[in-house]
Amino acid sequence: MNLKTRSLPDRLNSSRSQVFKNWETLLFAVAVSIFVVNSFASPYFLDAWGLSDATFNFTEKAMIAFAMALLIITGEIDLSVASIIALASTAMGAGLQLGLGTPELVFIGLVVGLLCGAFNAVLVTVLGLPSIVVTIGTMSLFRGISYIVLGDQAYRGYPPDFAFFGQGYVFWVFSFELVLFAVLALIYGILLHKTNFGRSIYAIGNNPTGALFSGIRVQRVKFILFLLTGLMSGVAAICLTSRLGSTRPSIGAGMELEVITMVVLGGVNILGGSGTILGVVLAAFVMGLVTFGFGLLNVPGIVMSIFIGLLLIGVIALPRLWKIFLNKG
Amino acid sequence: MPQQQTLTDKDVTLPILQLSGIVKIFPGVKALDKVSLSLYPGQVTALVGENGAGKSTIVKVLTGIYQPDDGEILLDGRTINFPTAHHASAAGITAIHQETVLFDDLTVAENIFIGHAPRTKLGLIDTQETSKLAQQLLQGIGADIDPSIRLRDLGIASKHMVAIARALSIDARVVIMDEPTAALSYKEIQELYELVEQLKSQGKAILFISHKFDEIFEIADRFNVFRDGQFIDEGKIDSITEADLVQLMVGRSVNKIYPQRQEKICEDVLEVKSYCHPTEFDDINFTLSRGEILGFYGLVGAGRSEFMQSLFGITKPSDGVVKIGGEITKIRSPADAVSHGIVYVPEDRGKQGVVIGLPIFQNVTLPSLSQTSQKGFIRLAEEFKLAREYTQRLDLRASSLDQDVGNLSGGNQQKVVIAKWLATQPKVIILDEPTKGIDIGSKAAVHEFMSDLAEQGLSVIMVSSEIPEVLGMSDRVIVMREGRMVAELAGDDLSPEALIRHAAGIGEVNP
Amino acid sequence: MIKRFLIARETLLLGVILVLIALVASRFPGFVAAGNLVNVFNDTAPLIILALGQMVVIVTRCIDLSVAGNLALTGMAVAMLNSVAPGLPIPIILTISIVLGAGMGLMNGLLVWKLEIPPIVVTLGTMTIFRGVIFLISDGKWVNAHEMSASFTGFPRAEIMGLPVMSWIAIGVSLLFLLLITRTSLGRAFFAVGGNPHAAVYTGINVGKTQCAAFVISGALAGLVGYLWVARYAVAYVDIAGGFELEVVAACVIGGISIAGGLGSVGGAVLGALFLGVVKNALPVVHISPFWQLAISGAAIVIAVTFNARSNRSSGRVILKPVRPNS
After folding, report:
1. What domains sit in chain B, N to C, each tagged with a CATH number?
2. End-to-end CA distance of chain A
3. CB atoms within 10 A of CB C156
4. How far does the CA of residue C256 sit from the closest CA of chain B (Å)?
5. C-alpha to C-alpha distance for C56 and C269, rounded to whole angstroms
C-alpha cells in the first residue's frame, strides 16, 4: 500500500485567466476596434435601428455556425448547409402553393432540414465516407433538387404572419432573429461547455480513437451533429425566406463558406479539437460590423469579402509569423 | 537447410559498423544504457532481448531516426553520425520493418527506386530502365513479383522482398531485419533464409532481430543480447546453447520480488467459449474467476491484443459466446463493454489510452460522466472529486489535475488510464502490456496496484511479453501463437522455457 | 489482379460515359455527330485542365478552392491588358496568364508550406480575396467582346485539324501531366507525400515543398484557363466561373481521386471532367431542363465517393495462418 499519497491541486492558475489570454480576447479587441473605427468613419453608424438592421448580416449565418462549430470540433465538416436552406425553402414554398399555413410551413422547413441532415449523417457515420466530399456532393444534390422544382421561377406570397420570423421585432430594436440568435447562442454554449455531450465532442475532436476506447459512442455523436446542422439550416431557411419574402433556388448561395469563415474566425480549429461558442459569437459580430460598416461607406460587398478573407488567413497566420520571428531573433 | 559459411576468426574480420557506449534517454526512461553492437560483413548477428530491452530503439539509432545522447558510431572504423534518416541510408544502412515504410499506392518498381531512379538524357525518369533494373533485382533475390503492380496488392512476404530489393538498389552494406518472419508462412521463411544467405555472400552485414530461437540458431553467426536497455553479452552463435541464451535474455529478473497473493477459489466472473475472428484469432476458450490474475503470453503479433480489443467491443467476432457472471452477453461497442464491467487498458497509450489535448481530470472522468453529472449537465466539483480520489490512489505525479495529459511521462499517463477505468467500478480489467516503456519505479507501482485490485475482488487479464512479469504476476498463463491458444499453464508448469517454447513453437512437430 | 480492377475503375467510368452517349444518341443521333462530340470536348476543355491541376493538389492531401477566383482574376487582368494593348501577341498573353496564375498559386502554397495553415482555410480566404481584387482592378466594369482584339478571342477557337486550339491545349496539358506523373521525381513525390508522408520524409522528400509545388501548378493552370475562358466567352466580369471550383473538385472525385491523398490518375481526372461535360451537354439535347444538371452531378459525386471508399478499403491484419505443411 502507498504510505504517502500525494494530493494534486485541481488547477494551477484560474481557468478564467486563461480564457482571456487568447483568441476570444483577440476577437473582442478586433470587434471593439472595428466598432470604434466605424463610428468615426461614418455618421450613420451609431444609430440603434441601423445597428439593428446590421444584425441581419450575421444572425442567420450564426445560427448555422453554432451547429457547424460543434461539427468541426469533432473533425467533420458540412458544406451542404446553404443548399439545405435552398431545399427547405423550396419545400416551404411548395407547401405555400398547397395553401398551408405558417405553423405547417415552419414544420416543413424544420423537417426538411432534419432529413437532409440525416442523409449526410448516414453517408458519413454509417457508410464511413469522408464528410468533405460527401457534403460537396449533397451540396449540389440538395440545391439541384430545388432547381429542378423551381427552375428560374420563384415562390412568393408568404402569409403575413410568416414574415414575422425574418422581419418582426420582439422588443424595440431587437428583432426576432436577433433574439433567436441570442437564445441559440446560450443553448449551444451550454450544450458545448456544460454537458456530457459537449465533453464527448471535445474528446472525439482531440482523439477519436481514444474517445472510442473510452466508451464514447463516436458515431452516434457525429450522427446527431449532422442532424443539428441540418436542423439549423432549416431554422435559417425559415428566417431567410421570411425576411426575403420569397424563395428562389439560388437562395443563400455561397453562405456555407461564410458560415465556415465565421467558425474559423471564431477560433475553432478546422482540424478539430478546440473552439468555443463565445468565439463564434464574437466572430459573428466582427463579420457583421465589417459588413455594415463597409456598407455604410458604400464599399461593394465583393471588396468587403477581401477584408474577410484577409482576416481569416491573418488571424491564423499572424501568431505563427510572430513565433517564427521570435525564433529567428 | 542453408549452408553456413565458414567464418574467419573474429579478430581478423573488421566490423563494418560498430556502436559503443550508446545512450538514449527519454523522459523518465533510459531506453539504452551504454550498449554495444558490432556488425560484421558477410555475417548475421542476431539481436536478442525481451520487449522493452531496447532493440527497436537501437534500430532507430542505426537508421538515423533517433540521435544518441552519448556514445560512438564507427563506420569502417571512422566516426560517423546520422542526423537524419536520409544520412543513414546514404551511408548504406537500410532496414526492413514489420510494417512497411514504403508506399502502398506506388508500383513495386517505383518503390524500389524512389529517390534514386535512373534518368534519361532529358533528366526524366527512365521508366523502362527502372522497370528492367527492378525486374533484375527481384529475380536476383528469387522473388517472382511483377514490378508494375502496386505495393498494396502484395502480401507481407512480397513486401519484404521489395524492401530487400530496395536495400540492394541503394547498395546497402548493412541490412537490418526487424522481426521479418512475423507474418510469413513456412515456405516464405525458407525463402527468406536463402535470401539472407545471398546477402551474406555479397558481404553485407545483417542485423537480425527475432524472438524465435529456431530461426536464430538456423541463420545467425553471432548473437548479441540486450536486457532492460543494457548490453549483456555477445559472441559466436555456436558457442552458446538455447538455454544459456534464454538465461541471458531473462536474467536475474525472474528472482525479483513480486507481490505475494493468497490463492482463492472464487466464482467465475467471465467465461469465453469458441471465440473466433475471420483473420485475427481462432477458438479462444477460458474462464476467469474473481480475484484472479490471468496472464496472456505470446510473441508480438500472436493476436492477443486483437482478441482483447474484440472482447472489449472494438471489432466484431465471427463466432463465440461470452458469459459475464453466468449470463450470456453481447458486446457490440466499448460503451457496452464498460456497462457490463469489462474495461481495457490499451498498449498504445497515446492513441488509444488517453485523449491528449484534454486535461487529466477530464480524461479520468470520461467514461464516468453519467456518475458525476446531473441529468447530462457537467458538475465540475464532482468531476474533480472523482479524479482526485483515483489519481491519489495511483500516486499520480503531475503539477495539477488541470494539466494536459500529453505533458505527462509514459508511466503517469498509464496511471491516468488505469484511474479512468477504476472509476467505473469494473469487474474485469484487461491490461495490455501495462508496463511497456515505463521506468522501473513505476513498473513496481503498477504491479503492486494490480495485486491490490485482485485482492479486492477484481479480475485481471494481463497481456504481457515480459517473461518475469508474466511469471511473477499471473496465477495462470495462457499462451497464444499465431492467433490460437496453444497452452494454459499454472503452478509448476510455469517456467520461462515453457513459455518461450509454446510461444515460438520450438520443438513441436508441425502438424 | 487488382491492377486490372484499378484500371477497370477508369474503364468503368469510360464505360459509363460511353453508355451515356449511346443512350442519348439512340434518341438523338445528332449527338454523336463528329462536330457535336468535338463541341462537347471543347466545352469541357477548361474543366479538364483545372481538374488535372486539382488532382495533384488533392493527391498531396490538400485542396484548392481558389481556382475559380484565380481564373477569374487572371482572365480579367489579361482582358483588360488586351483592351489597352491590343497589339500584344498571344504567346505573351499566355505567358502572363500562366505566370499570374502561378503567382497566386504560390501564395497559397507558401501559406500552406511555411505557415502550416490548413489548405481549406487558406484557399477559402484566397478565393474571396481574388474575387474581391477583380472588382478593385476593374471597378466593377465588364470587358466586352468589342473591347477584345480579334486575335485575343480568336486564338482558342482557331481550328487545327478540325479541333479548336482550346481542345488541343487540353490534350497537351493532359499529356504533359502524364509525363509529369510517371517520369519525374516531382510526380512520384506527390504520390509519396499523399500516400505516406512519414515515409516520404525518410526518402528525403520535403513534404511542404511538394505541396507548394502542387499549388503552383494548380494556380498556373487556373491562370491559363482564365485567359481561355474570357477569350472563348468574349467577356470578362467579376462573377465569371462562379462556383466552378466545386465542379472541379467534383470532377476529381468522380474520377476516382481520393480525398485522403496518394491515389489518383490523369485518366481519372480527365474522365471525371468528361463525365460532367457530357451530362451538361446531353441535358438540353434530350430536353431535360439544364436545371437537372446540378442534381445529377451531386448524385454522381455521392455515388462516386461511395464507390471509391468501398474499393479502397484496406484489409485488416491477418494473423491466422493456415496450418503448416510437414518440413
Report:
1. 1-92+172-253 (3.40.50.300), 101-171 (no CATH), 268-341+427-434+442-506 (3.40.50.300), 350-425 (no CATH)
2. 52
3. 23
4. 13
5. 10
User: Where residue C325 falls among pLDDT bands split at 50, 70, 90?
Assistant: very low
Chain position carrying cell 429542378: A148
Predicted confidence (pLDDT) per residue in B217-239, tens digit: 889 999 999 887 889 999 999 89
B280: CB partners within 8 A, 6+ apart: B303, B306, B307, B310, B315, B483, C316, C317, C318, C319, C320
Q: Which residue has the cell 456598407?
A: A295
- Calculate the alpha carbon distances from C266 to B128, B511, C271, C276 in Å: 20, 51, 9, 16
Whole-number Å distance between alpha carbons of C193 and C207: 6
Q: pTM here?
A: 0.85
Coil vs helix vs strand at B477: strand
Q: Which CATH number fits domain C44-292+300-309: 1.10.150, 3.40.1350, 1.10.3470, 1.10.8?
A: 1.10.3470
The torsion of the CA quartet B434, B440, B442, B444, rounded to 10 degrees, works out to 80
- DSSP 3-state assignment of B39? strand
Residues of A in contact with B383 (CB under 8 A): none
A41 touching C (Cβ < 8 Å): no
Residue C65, pLDDT > 90, answer yes
Beta-sheet strands, E only, within chain A:
155-156, 169-171, 174-175, 246-247
- Mean pLDDT computed over C201-218: 91
**pLDDT in the model for residue B95:** 85
Q: What are the pLDDT digits (tens) for A73-112? A: 999 999 999 999 999 999 999 999 998 888 999 999 999 9
Chain A interface test: which of B333, B336, B362, B366 (most A C-beta within 10 Å): B366
